[in-house]
TrEMBL record:
Superkingdom field: Bacteria
Role this protein plays: Part of the twin-arginine translocation (Tat) system that transports large folded proteins containing a characteristic twin-arginine motif in their signal peptide across membranes. TatA could form the protein-conducting channel of the Tat system.
UniProt source species: Nonomuraea polychroma
Residue span of region Disordered: 39-104
Chief localisation class: membrane
Keywords: Cell membrane, Membrane, Protein transport, Translocation, Transmembrane, Transmembrane helix, Transport
UniProt protein name: Sec-independent protein translocase protein TatA
Database matches in InterPro entries: TatA/B/E, TatA/E
Protein family (similarity comment): Belongs to the TatA/E family.
Positions in coiled-coil regions: none
Length: 104
């Protein structure tokens, strides 16, 4: 999708009409914070996958009775919808905190 100058101007005008000029900076800050949180969470997810150690066995062990497999509790898998909901809640908390800081 390629946006030109007329499309961007039209989008900006629509935003000003919808939210008003006074609320746009707060809206932009909230979106920026949400994106930063989202990026941090997604990078943590990929780092967690990379942290799993790999075991390499150089020589085979002598024949022994196989040990029963150990049950390793799996980390709960969070869906994309749940992550988005959590990010939205965090953004709402951040906005509420920012508004509280502005009050005298």
């Amino acid at each position: 999708m390629n946006l030109g100058a007329p499309e961007i101007i039209l989008i900006l005008v629509a935003l000003v009409l919808l939210f008003g000029a006074k609320k746009l900076p707060d809206l932009a800050r909230g979106v920026g914070r949400s994106l930063r949180i989202f990026k941090a969470e997604t990078s943590k997810m990929t780092e967690d996958d990379d942290d799993k150690p790999t075991v390499v066995q150089a020589t085979p062990e002598p024949q022994q009775a196989p040990a029963p497999p150990q049950q390793i509790p799996a980390a709960p898998v969070i869906s994309a919808e749940e992550q988005a909901r959590r990010l939205e809640e965090e953004a709402a908390r951040l906005r509420a905190g920012a508004q509280a800081d502005k009050r005298p």
